[in-house]
Predict the structure.
Amino acid sequence: MTETLEKETGRVEAFSDGVFAIAITLLVLEFKVPHHSVAPDDAAVWSSLRHLWPSFIAFTASFIAILIMWISHHGLFRMVHRVDTPFLYVNGFMLLMVTFVPFPTAVLAEYLGHPGERAATAFYCGTFVLVSLTFQLWWWTACRRRLLKSHVPQEHIDRLWKSYRFGFVVYVVATLLAFWHAAVGLGLCVSLWFYWALLSRRTEA
């Protein structure tokens, strides 16, 4: 029985890993090779590459974000001993938001440093508000439907709840700040990547 349950959770995690891999790969499509109407010299090529700095920032931020989400997702699955249909739908909803991340990344890269950057940054930060909600829904479903392994301590469960609530509030604040100043909102949003990276180490069961 235990082997069957592990096989089921393994299939779900393997499918999820594939989705994460596709989402993180799609980020690189934001980079476009610069073209010139006349044959460029070395200086022109370097100048064109420097103008891609918004794409580098957006790509790096989202790559790290998806990487940390994947690590967190993997850590959460280490605490799950079985899955059911409602949980599969919730996991799918989370993956829906993960695969959406490349789009606000492209929008951010397009407008960062130009008019409209505040709206683009707010859209980017707002995406992670929704991502945060899907992680909370995932964790709530796993806890409510008793899908967690019996050895997971209550202290561990409570710590994750507090962290998710804290992250959600910070993402909301970052989104609101982005309407005022793009760099401030984006900076606050990106700062959470370090928080989640630390949390993924502290909450290993």
Q: What stands out?
A: The helical segments are 2-26, 42-50, 53-77, 85-100, 102-111, 117-144, 154-180, 182-202. DSSP finds eight helices and no strands in the chain. The first helix runs from residue 2 to 26.
